[in-house]
Design a protein that fits this description.
mainly alpha, two-stranded antiparallel ribbon, 2 strands, about 60% helix
């Protein structure tokens, strides 16, 4: 069992290589004490979770930038962003060029603003990587001067806004790295359980919404989440089902290892139940 959980955690990290540049140099995701994501005494009743209204999600035609999409059949897809967080040049000008689209509800434009703010914030907190040359660091820091001096932009939660507007990339990053929303305090689940519970609820909502439109990254994230038992209740059969769905749809890196890790810990009956559930997941997201 312990070996299986190590595999699930490892493969979950590998599956999110698409977000390497967003997460680079940041503190590790906070771990929590119980399989449900917070101590039982602080865990809100199920009725309270079910009674919450859904986030104001607006899944539009520009839920993801087409150039970043790798297709896996008619509906399933994954996202690959292997580039800098923002284009070279004045960061404030780049943000201003995206503001109008963001105000009109374009989640991808809002997500581009989030990436620019994140990039410039990284410059001042020392999170740039060792491979960045000194001259390049100075040049990019100079490009950030105007943006860093604009608190009306820097202090906005652009990630949550982008996710609410339907950016699939934003949904994935919101769920995978709570530091962007909750900060780097690893005791937040103890200090502010309501806020932590709200993040968990929205993270699950975003992943399921993205999975429903064919995001293989979201399916992999849900598989790993059911193994970790953080944003959802731990359920190895359900985790196996999501891993099986990914294997059928895309066979992306890490999916076979994740599937094998789950299979090793399941009974034959649980495996059958997971495979049946996988077919339901595939029909729901991709109509296959």
């Amino acid at each position: 069992m312990k070996a299986m959980m190590c595999w699930i955690l490892l493969v979950g990290v590998l599956a999110y290589s698409v977000h390497l540049f967003v997460r680079r140099g940041e503190p590790a995701r906070p771990r929590v004490a119980s399989g449900s994501g917070m101590p039982a005494a602080m865990k809100p009743p199920l009725s309270a979770i079910q009674a919450r209204p859904s986030p104001r999600l607006k899944m539009g035609p520009r839920a993801v930038e087409t150039r970043l999409v790798t297709r896996h059949g008619p509906k399933a897809f994954s996202i690959v962003r292997a580039e800098d967080l923002r284009p070279d040049g004045d960061a404030l000008l780049h943000v201003q060029q995206n503001l109008r689209q963001s105000e009109q509800g374009d989640g991808t434009a809002t997500y581009r603003i989030f990436l620019a703010v994140l990039d410039c914030r990284r410059m001042i907190v020392g999170s740039v990587t060792a491979v960045d040359g000194a001259d390049d660091v100075i040049r990019r820091l100079q490009q950030c001067e105007g943006l860093l001096a604009a608190p009306e932009i820097m202090d906005v939660d652009w990630l949550t806004r982008a996710a609410d507007q339907g950016s699939i990339e934003a949904m994935l990053v919101y769920a995978e790295n709570p530091n962007h929303v909750l900060g780097t305090d690893t005791s937040v689940h103890l200090r502010d359980p309501e806020r932590f519970s709200e993040w968990k609820y929205k993270a699950r909502f975003y992943l399921e919404a993205a999975a429903d439109v064919g995001s293989v990254d979201a399916l992999m994230a849900l598989s790993s989440a059911y193994g970790r038992g953080d944003i959802v209740e731990g359920n190895e059969s359900e985790g196996y089902a999501y891993a099986s769905a990914v294997q059928v749809l895309a066979q992306v890196a890490g999916s076979e290892e994740l599937l094998s890790a789950y299979r090793a810990g399941l009974s034959p009956a649980e495996t059958v139940r997971g495979e049946r559930r996988a077919r339901q997941i595939i029909r729901r997201c991709c109509g296959e």
